[in-house]
Write a structure and sequence with these properties.
- The structure holds two protein chains of two kinds.
- By secondary structure, chain A is mainly alpha-helical.
- Chain A has a two-stranded antiparallel ribbon with strand order 1-2.
- The longest helix of chain A has 29 residues.
- Chain A is globular, with a radius of gyration of 19 Å.
- The model of chain A has no long low-confidence stretch (mean pLDDT about 85).
- By secondary structure, chain B is α/β, with parallel strands linked by helices.
- Chain B has 13 helices and 15 strands.
- In chain B, strands 8, 9, 10, 11, 12, 13, 14 and 15 form an eight-stranded mixed beta sheet that branches. A five-stranded parallel beta sheet of chain B has the order 2-1-3-5-7, sandwiched between helices. A two-stranded parallel sheet of chain B has the order 4-6.
- At the A-B interface, helix 1, strand 2, helix 8 and helix 11 of A face helix 7, helix 8 and helix 9 of B.
Amino acid sequence: METLLPFLVVGISVGAVYALSGVGLVVLYRASGVVNFAYGALGGLAAMVCWQIIDMEYADWMGWVAGVFVATFLSWAYGRFIAPSLTHQDRIVRAMATLGFALMVMGMAQWYWGDDPRRLVLPTDSGGLEFDGRRLISYTRLLALVLAATMTISMLWLLAKTPLGLRMRALQSNRVLSGLLGVRVKNVDTWAWTIAGVFAGITGLFMGNMVRLNPTVLTFLVIPAMAAAVVGRLVSLPMTVLGGLLIGVIEALTTLLPQISRYGSATGFVVAILAILWQQRKGIGLSRDNSHLE
Amino acid sequence: MKQKYILALGLVVAASFSVSAQAQDRCGLGNGKKATGEPIQIGAIVGKTGPEDFSSAARSAEAYFKCVNANGGINGRPVNYTVQDDTWNPEVASQAASKLVKDTKVVGMVGSTSFVECGANNKMYEQEGVAVIAGVGVPRACFYGKNYAAFNQGPRQSTISAAMYIADTFKLKNITCIAPGIPGFGDWVCGGVESWGKANGVAVKQVIFDPGQLDGNAIVLQAQASKPDGIVLGMPRGMMLPILTAAEQQDMGKSIKWGLPTSAYHTEMPKAAGKYWDGKLYVHMELEPLDKDGADTKNWLAVMAKYGNKKDPIDSFSQAGYLSAQVATNAMLGIKGDIDRKAFFNAARGIKNVKTDMLCAPWYFGEGERHQANHNGRVALLTGGSFKLQTPNCFQAKDADLADVLAYEAKTGVAK
């Protein structure tokens, strides 16, 4: 267990960021019915903008704010100006449109920043909790865990207790009827895109620090996030969090087994496929639950 | 961007760069006349789009060919240089090579650098009689092709050399080699370090990780499990940074010596690694220092300043690309009669004893079954925001796989 403990802690901390990403995807999907493939690209852009601001020797906090703001602004702009024109398109078309948006953002970021070696250093990197004379977890990873928990609970509260959450749940139940009953669909959608942008920005900063500061690499952060969201059937926030943590832990533990360690990145796919198979078996698959979002 | 390079390399490089930027660039015939004849088709395949941008060598080769075209070309004929991106995909690499060889009808390939194209295309190059004077060879296949010769030592030798240096200098006995599990790469690189360790009384443990794995912490924890006194990272620099970040968070720079291959020898690396790693990273250089006071090094910087793009990297890979274009140009200038594929192939195979201040020893293409002419390098320490040379003399990588290459050199005298 002593050998496993550091891997479990590392897995949980990175899984927390997957979970946070998954929550961002699920909140948007529940409100607007759009699977947002641009999530990772926006996170990557946030990390690059943050690095740029800090590299220009502005205060660190200005970099963090600027990064999250850029991701939020672009997500808001997409939700406000592009997504409404696709409302009556097929769900797959709406998802593919976000993929196009992702490729544009990723391409522009890669073109502008290129491939020079860079690191996004956070002040919380240098300290951490010790165990058995070794650092068990850095404060950055601890912060990711705390933020994942706080933001997920905030989202659950928002959906359950606020008028905006009520409207989001109404849209989730039936978009057409909600519109007829006076819910301002476009406004609620825009809020969902804005919230998703905040989530993308924050997770992008963590991933830029914990993984690799490269727009292309960060764009593919959407894969484990999507897998986490699939575990939650794109509906359940707690299950999405559980899925994210599970993927993070399994991924970390695979490094202990040389036979499978080089296939660790397949964890997200495997977990998502198993989750879908399980959900089909129980008759609660995505298609049945979400047909109203067509 | 030029200013960033100057800052990164310090005042010494600043002086050499600014002087060389003003220096007269020398390329090809060097007559200052624009080449206007029928273009000579030359191609390159690079892994630009993907986990890491491997286009640096082709960018410097392109700059050199622009300079050649502005200076009389190849006896009046300009070089038309076409670079294709294989997107790190073997299928795309095959299609790109097929397009260049069969449609564009290139006479040869120059400056290629790719993780996937050697394995995908070596057979076709042999069948079609295409010689590849590559910039940088990456996986094993790039050093085991009859028609493919690169200017670098390769990641296996570079990682072995980094391990040799830290083990010899700090009397290490237990080294961990970390590399990505890319076919023909990770096992080959760390396998070389392990073979060297066995022969020299150093225990070597391999940690081969999934290159798609996002978190460096689990990799570092696995490396830490064998309680090493030294760690070498056999991988592209982009993959190194998450591992260095994770190792910094575990404070592993204090008790463990770190050796990196030449991919870390980049002007932006000291800044990217951060203050924690100052004085802790020993970097092997497959080519000579970027700020070396030599004619070719100065000319390379002058060509890059005048014909390159502001965003072009100034690194070892760029040096290799420059050399590949320079050597190919000289080979083409030496061809009597038509410059076709066969003539280029024969000219390439005839290249030997190329002396340059950018390499420790003479380079050759030669007529061997495989090519690995460069096997000597140096080590620098990342310190004070720059790199400080640690080895006054070049040293040869103790790679058991080099036996056939050394025997060929001794027999033919192609590297005197």
